[in-house]
Amino acid sequence: MATLLETGGQVVLWAGWSLQLPPSYHQVNDDGSWSAWGADWALDIHILEVAEHAPPEQLLGSEHPATLAGQGWLGFGHVLAESEADATVYRLAGTLAATGTLMSCWVSCQSEERLAFAKGLIQSISNAKPRAA
Q1: Which helix (H) or strand (E) holds 89?
Q2: What distance in Å separates the CA atoms of residue 30 and residue 28, rounded to the nearest whole number?
Q3: Nearest Cα to Cα of residue 95 among 133, 50, 130, 132
Q4: For 82-113, how does the pLDDT look when each residue is reduced to its tens digit (9 = 90+)?
């Protein structure tokens, strides 16, 4: 069941992950993923917990150097433009890694101009797990 976040605010997920949302709805999905959405955007997140002390750099792998960074995580992202029902949907896809956990996320929006908003949503994500030594 969806939860309305009337004024926006922080949402705590799991495995140390949290994020700031504008006014929106959010929910845990039947498949264990998590989603949030507003009038013209949607955010889908999958979180995997892996080896407890694996550092983010190791989890990302050498073929995908970090091009994004946030509070407690490193990651990379890319923009996809896909046709859906005679319209183009823009998605900012990100893979974020923190110690012992990976997040795969996609922010979908209906205009290329909203990609800055999508990047801001991803930049609001944080992970509170301490980094491996």
Answers
A1: strand 87-98
A2: 7
A3: 50
A4: 998 888 999 999 999 999 999 999 999 999 99
The residue type found at 76 is: F
Who contacts 6 (Cβ-Cβ below 8 Å, separation ≥6)? 23
| Residue 10 tokens, joined | 């922080």
User: Per-residue pLDDT tens for 37-76?
Assistant: 999 999 999 999 987 788 898 898 878 778 899 999 999 9
pTM here is: 0.90
Provide the 3-class DSSP secondary structure of residue 6. coil
* C-beta pairs of 86-93 under 8 Å, 24+ apart in sequence: 90/114, 90/115, 90/118, 91/118, 92/118, 92/119, 92/122
What is the side-by-side strand order in the sheet with 34-37? 3-5, 24-28, 34-37, 41-49, 101-109, 87-98, 73-84, 68-70
